[in-house]
Amino acid sequence: MDAPNAVSSWSDQALAELAARVRRGAPWRQALRELQPSPWGESAQHGTEDARGNWLWLVDLARWERALDVQGGIGTATAALSRHFAAVQYVDGTQSLVEFARARFCEDQCANVSCTQAGASSLPYGSGTFDCVVWDGALGRRVTGVATADPRAVLAAVLAECRRVLRPGGCLYVGIATGPPSGRVLPAGPILSTLVRMVLGVIRVVPSASWRQRVTRRVRRFEHLAVARAVPRELRAAGFARVQAYYIDPSFQQPWNIIPAGRRAVMAYERLQMTRGVLRPWLAWLSLHPVLFDCHAFLAYV
Amino acid sequence: MKRKLRELLTAAGLDGDPVGEIRDGGFLILQNYGAIPPAVRKSGYYVWNRGFNVLLLGPDNAPRYFCKCRPIADANLERETTVLQAFNRDPDLRTVVPRTSGVRDGEVQLQVGEFIRGRPYEYTVARLTERAWVASMGQILDVARTVSTRAGSLLPGLLSAPAPATLRAAATDALTELGAAGLAEDALQVLDRALARAGSVPPLLQHGDLWPANVLGHHETWWLLDFETFGIVQVPLYDVYHFVRNCWTLREPDAAASTAWVTRLASDAPDAELCRRTILYQARQLGLGPTEAAGVLAYYVVDVTAQFMRRGARRTIWEPLMREVRAAADLLRGGAALHDAMFGRG
User: The complex's ipTM?
Assistant: First the structure.
């Protein structure tokens, strides 16, 4: 997901218009604002956007030299990386986004950023090139070069490629918004997947829109459990040795809190949230905390 | 965790090595409002000079330390750390502010404080009985007064002038800003006259943001938090007005939305009488009479509004405060003295 606007939901036409505006010389912030104004105003928008890179303070790296932003979108994560690493590569499969990113980093005079058009499943770099790789908003957009939209296949293809380009001791950040993309539920076990799909199917035929929306939201929450289990498994399958999971609350767009995905941390966090429902601490206590959060992040070390 | 952050936490050394006892998964980033290092635009100024906070859990899974991480250019955190460290040296103040240490390098500054268990007063004040509300407000304001009084000797460098300052002179800049933002000339004049009539007050370092979210209650003791703006305001009773106004707003949000607080404070409403009594009691403790107390009220509404404007807050944020300024001016129109309009009925 890209902040401040979910570029993942933009049409090709909107992305082309975005690129055209910066090509015509519009400042990149203005071009973004014109296409989708922020409800929070300019200063809040950029404050929140900048803060999205603070997860880097959680990362334990020996070297902070080279970083790669996979499916970089409008370049939010790249901008954050450029303040921590000596050299940063931005990669996206969409031509118009690469054009926009080039204009953005040229305007911001980020001399340590270079932009390349490439798919996330075939990165044009040698093995062991980077200290850190970021795939933010994973599964939020179609991956160029991967024929299927099946989340499992996409994860397998991209994670293996990310693992390849990381140096020993390097770290991959995967940010993922749940529920997963429409169509198929990630495999948290066939029974859970099937149940969620069945319930969602039943909900679609219920006439009351508000009831349908509410129940769909609740059912989707159980898909969060699937993500929490499936992504670490895929990361390990791709060859990552150590995986740390986090929740981002309330959303990628407003990443005000980053909480380790563990029972004790979530319970401590929930105790601080005085205005939330009484059920949440109980769900955390039962280790069902994945259902409480819409955004998951994973740090995976080689 | 980034090695640099680990090293800074260790160097802060509140209880030896705070990092050594933190296990994986015991590190939470909270209130993540600004990047460190901050983004710098082409023109070179900081886009957003804030940072994030960190909660460290101890081996028993309980919150152990609360850390504020800010860019080095953030003067507020530096001020707060200096203030809290000074308070930590005072045996009485040690029990009302968290134990704190600070450390910095070329990129980030860190304040490591003991985590204080307790419930923010913000979440309890609305549910208290009138009696409990008045009692707790009195206790909290007594604590704040003790802190302010001691701070004068602990941090003499913060006092801008030891001599009493006239409220009129102190409010000049703020009134000019309100005028520029559209406050009517006659309102400016009546406020200016009221401030002149109140004369001068002895300087007293104020918390500056004493509202219920910055007060924790734990086992019948009150802890004060967030001293980032401590001492910027040096007009006694300022914290009292700020605290009473916010408490009342939390208790009666609907009334606060429809009627200016100043108007309600001058009314016959039962809660208004409780608030006035609390204010006058605190004023007496500070050696101020009703005239000075009313003058500080005018100063408070003018200054707090101007502060929000200076911070670049949107109009929707400061407009309700501007309504308070207009309400104070309305009370003064027709030649009434503010202390008669406000405190004359008791």
Answer: 0.85
